[in-house]
């Protein structure tokens, strides 16, 4: 699952450069993933390529777009427009996903309310329950301090959010119908230091 977005990005770049087909070795060299792993990954989804021919770029790009992103557009809100939230708002998400729109941000800082960051308006957190249904938002990126994370997750669930990308260092307690993906930067850094030391 973690490799699928890498494959999608690779095929997207290949299409931009006008490439019609690629081999598993070319993909391997570009992504530093073993060719056998690539063939095994692709075979999991059926016959995506032909021996001696390789993989058709447009076909694979369409395939991965459907399997990673689905056919519907996702409206996303960033909860917490501080340093990390603002950085994410300034990030070009279209490089990752053509079907993802960051349509709103929420914060309590009075000085930010009503402003726009990279064309996305910042609303007051008190208006969250009103704005989320109005904008058809079903995904939230949570960039709040740890102590505010759980209460906000409960509010997001009640407002209709179906998926949360959680940058807070706590594990959120939500219903089974809500998918939470946790990104703890301190844990990721510790893992990096461990690999640097031991491999």
From TrEMBL:
Location of the protein in the cell: Cytoplasm
GO annotation terms (biological process): negative regulation of DNA-templated transcription; response to redox state
GO cellular component labels: cytoplasm
Chain sites annotated for binding NAD(+): 80-85
GO molecular function: DNA binding; DNA-binding transcription factor activity
Residues annotated as domain CoA-binding: 69-171
Classification via InterPro entries: CoA-bd, NAD(P)-bd_dom_sf, Rex_bacilli-type, Rex_DNA-bd_C_dom, Tscrpt_rep_Rex, WH-like_DNA-bd_sf, WH_DNA-bd_sf
Keyword annotations from UniProtKB, A to Z: Cytoplasm, DNA-binding, NAD, Repressor, Transcription, Transcription regulation
Transmembrane segments: none
DNA-binding region(s), residue ranges: 6-45
Record note on quaternary structure: Homodimer.
Role this protein plays: Modulates transcription in response to changes in cellular NADH/NAD(+) redox state.
Family (UniProt): Belongs to the transcriptional regulatory Rex family.
NCBIfam families, sorted: PRK05472.1-3, PRK05472.1-5, PRK05472.2-3, PRK05472.2-4, PRK05472.2-5
Name this protein carries in UniProt: Redox-sensing transcriptional repressor Rex
Source organism per UniProt: Salinicoccus sediminis
Upper lineage: Bacteria, Bacillati, Bacillota, Bacilli, Bacillales
Encoding gene per record: rex
């Amino acid at each position: 699952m973690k490799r699928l977005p890498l494959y999608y990005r690779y095929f997207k770049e290949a299409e931009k450069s006008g490439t019609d087909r690629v081999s598993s070795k070319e993909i391997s060299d570009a992504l530093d993933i073993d060719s056998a792993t690539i063939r095994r990954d692709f075979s999991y989804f059926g016959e995506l390529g032909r021996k001696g021919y390789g993989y058709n770029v447009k076909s694979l790009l369409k395939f991965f777009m459907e399997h990673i992103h689905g056919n519907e557009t996702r409206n996303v809100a960033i909860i917490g427009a501080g340093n990390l939230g603002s950085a994410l708002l300034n990030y070009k998400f279209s490089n990752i996903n053509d079907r993802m729109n960051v349509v709103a941000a929420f914060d309590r800082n009075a000085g930010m309310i009503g402003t726009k960051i990279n064309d996305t308006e910042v609303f007051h957190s008190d208006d969250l329950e009103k704005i989320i249904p109005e904008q058809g938002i079903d995904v939230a990126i949570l960039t709040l301090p740890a102590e505010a994370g759980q209460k906000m997750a409960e509010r997001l669930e009640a407002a209709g959010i179906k998926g949360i990308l959680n940058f807070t260092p706590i594990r959120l307690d939500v219903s089974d119908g809500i998918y939470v993906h946790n990104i703890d930067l301190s844990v990721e850094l510790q893992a990096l230091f461990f690999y640097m030391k031991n491999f």
